[in-house]
Design brief:
361 residues, two-stranded antiparallel ribbon, elongated
Length: 361
């Protein structure tokens, strides 16, 4: 059970069992709730059922968050992932398997087994933690950031970042993944991509197998009573797997893009709207980067245009390459400063991919 939560916490065994139990109940409740869609909308198209399943899934997730806040009932994201895999495998083994060929059956069983092994591996993997002693406060963290820059070079060759969830520094930190219960860093980033690809392949195989079952058993042409529990569960899990493939495919494309241009998820800027609002409210005074600048209102739109870049160059100074200070002609004595950026880690797509796949400690 230890793998189902962050392995750097000090939760008791009873708490781990409790979170795992809540997660199991939530998965069963969610999957049987989704089975109501094909049960009562059997005459509708799969596209409509897919839309209704997505809406119902959002409502169930909202209900789960409400229970968490009101009742203090907590689940584990990684346990939810695990139990959803097990649930789909059970539906496959009990109902779908009879409609698949021996080759497809063996392939799917191997995919599920490898997925579970990969999930266990990434839960217990070391993403590249840096031993900083017992740093607890921000005042203790800041000096280490300076020390890390001095030790590993001005460009941060190890790209050491701080994870608030794990309260630890991680080499090559990309993001903290609740679904996998661990940070994604230099040492396990490749495993993360492989595991994400494994989810896509396994779910795609399940979609193919369950569709064969639906077509062979003529479930889509049946009535409410002819569909039965088996048909409802197979169709609902098919729709669930299809929804997973859709968002995971987009997620995968995003990470492939980041790998090709050697940029980390954590290095992208957030809270852009708040930044724009603060600049607009400032009037003649706008804050850009680390400098407070007297700016004419006519230049506010220009500053906002410069602020639309995706890289979080304000948080990570190594992305800042030049500062330009120019006079404001409509405001004598005033000036504005523009800080431009570049990605010092980008070495071209081929070299970036090669570095991603080979660089390890």
């Amino acid at each position: 059970m230890q793998g189902f939560t962050d392995h750097r916490t000090n939760e008791s065994i009873s708490a781990l069992i409790g979170r795992s139990t809540v997660s199991c109940i939530l998965v069963i409740f969610t999957q049987f709730t989704l089975s109501l869609v094909p049960r009562f909308f059997y005459a509708s198209s799969l596209l409509l059922q897919l839309s209704l399943s997505a809406l119902l899934l959002l409502l169930v997730l909202g209900f789960g968050r409400w229970c968490k806040r009101l009742l203090g009932v907590y689940s584990s994201a990684s346990a939810l992932v695990f139990y959803n895999i097990i649930f789909l495998w059970c539906v496959y083994f009990i109902f779908v398997r009879q409609a698949t060929s021996r080759l497809i059956d063996v392939m799917f069983q191997v995919e599920v087994a490898m997925l579970l092994v990969g999930l266990r591996s990434i839960l217990s993997s070391d993403p590249g933690f840096v031993n900083t002693g017992s740093l607890q406060t921000d005042s203790e963290i800041k000096p280490f950031e300076v020390e890390a820059q001095n030790e590993f070079g001005s460009l941060g060759l190890k790209r050491i970042r701080y994870c608030k969830s794990c309260k630890a520094y991680v080499k090559g930190f990309d993001h903290h993944c609740p679904a996998f219960g661990n940070c994604i860093g230099q040492n396990n980033h490749v495993l993360f991509i492989v595991l994400l690809l494994g989810f896509l392949c396994t779910e795609a195989t399940y979609i193919m197998c369950s569709f064969q079952f639906v077509r062979a058993s003529h479930v889509l042409n049946g009535t409410k009573f002819e569909i039965g529990l088996a048909g409802s569960l197979v169709i609902s899990t098919l729709l669930f797997a299809l929804l997973q493939v859709l968002w995971q495919g987009i997620f995968m494309a995003w990470h492939v893009y980041c790998i090709c241009f050697n940029i980390k998820t954590d290095e992208w800027k957030r809270k852009r709207k708040k930044k724009k609002e603060s600049l607009a409210a400032a009037g003649h005074e706008g804050t850009l980067g680390v400098t407070t600048l007297p700016v004419s209102p006519s230049f506010i739109s220009h500053l906002l245009l410069e602020d639309r870049i995706g890289i979080n160059w304000k948080k990570y100074p190594e992305f800042q390459i030049t500062i330009e200070s120019q006079p404001v002609f409509c405001n004598p004595g005033g000036s504005f400063t523009i800080m431009r950026y570049t990605n010092p880690y980008d070495k071209g797509i081929i070299q970036n991919v090669k570095e991603f796949s080979t660089r390890r400690d």
